[in-house]
Amino acid sequence: MPEAADVVYVSHNSLGHDVEDWNWEENMRLMSQCRHHIIAPSSFSWWAAWLNPDPQKMVLSPPHHRWLNFRNCDTSDVLPCSWVQLEDT
Known about the structure:
Blueprint: H1 3-12, H2 24-32, E1 37-38, H3 43-51, E2 59-61, H4 64-67, E3 84-85
Parallel strand pairs: 1-2, 2-3
Helix pairs in contact: 2-3
């Protein structure tokens, strides 16, 4: 789908909010206030879950090896033990 078509679709379906005017700080703030998190293999969603202070939150993560596979970096402690790593199927 052409990029312009994506913007038209999002603008039409955004309930009156202009997506282009949203900033990453506001998105991070809003995401970090969610009750629970299903994170994508991205640092942005990881930070949102990490910044959520609720000890009762549930965080679901892709398997560690799917997105934290760096050759020269130990990433074994990046996902807290309380976070649930989904299994490969």
